[in-house]
Write a structure and sequence with these properties.
Shape: elongated
Order of helices and strands: EEEEEEEEEEEEHEE
Largest sheet: 4 strands, mixed
Strand content: 25-35%
Helix content: under 10%
Distance between the termini: 61 Å
Structural class: mainly beta
Radius of gyration: 19 Å
Oligomer: single chain
Length: 205
């Protein structure tokens, strides 16, 4: 039997004597939801967030995760530490390497079915579909993307977390997706709290 304590509207509630199966919902604006479960296979106590939360305080380690719409989950507060994009349910969250959860950000778009311009297109690049958008210039053995996008949404520079080489890795994947060998160079630009790919030069060599 787990006990709960209420810290406020933005934090989980601890109600003395509450059932371990009880779900606690954090009010939000309908941007999609992410639910952290105490146990694997969506069992045990659960906490649901409906909006961005820069300081998540779970009273347990996440054993499984269920989402509606894509989310970015980070081990540190204020979207710091190691971050991963969670765009499907996980019966066993251990495979994500999220031993702690410090913050969670919704990347949900209610109208577009994907990642909005403010959240960035990330996740598994193998699931990208459609042509790369944005201004481009094609040469004999190269292709330059000024502001690359997928289905109208800018591409996150580091969708799986900001680590050394993540920007180059994403740019290389973009170039491979476009039929080229690698990214000869790539930059990124910050819009709000997100970094997006920019000025990507794809080459065949």
């Amino acid at each position: 039997m787990k006990n709960w304590l209420l810290f406020g509207a933005a934090l989980p509630l601890f109600a003395v004597g509450a059932s371990a199966q009880e779900r606690i919902v954090i009010p939000g604006q309908g941007q999609g939801t992410i639910t952290f479960f105490d146990g694997r296979n969506f069992s045990g106590a659960a906490v649901t967030y409906r909006q961005d939360e820069n300081r998540v305080r779970l009273p347990f380690s996440a054993g499984s995760i269920r989402v509606e719409g894509p989310w970015r989950v980070c081990t540190g507060p204020d979207y710091g530490g190691r971050c991963v994009t969670v765009d499907r349910d996980y019966r066993d969250a251990r495979f994500l390497g999220l031993y702690t959860v410090g913050s969670a950000q919704s990347l949900y778009s209610s109208g577009g079915g994907g990642y909005p311009p403010g959240g960035g297109w990330g996740g598994n690049w193998g699931n990208w579909s459609g042509p790369v958008g944005g201004p481009s210039l094609r040469g004999e053995n190269s292709l330059f993307f000024a502001t690359p996008s997928i289905r109208g949404s800018r591409i996150s520079a580091c969708p799986s977390g900001d680590f050394a080489g993540c920007q180059q890795q994403t740019a290389d994947r973009l170039c491979a997706y476009s039929g080229y060998g690698r990214a000869g160079s790539a930059d990124r630009v910050r819009i709000g709290r997100e970094w997006f790919l920019s000025d990507v030069l794809c080459t065949r060599r």
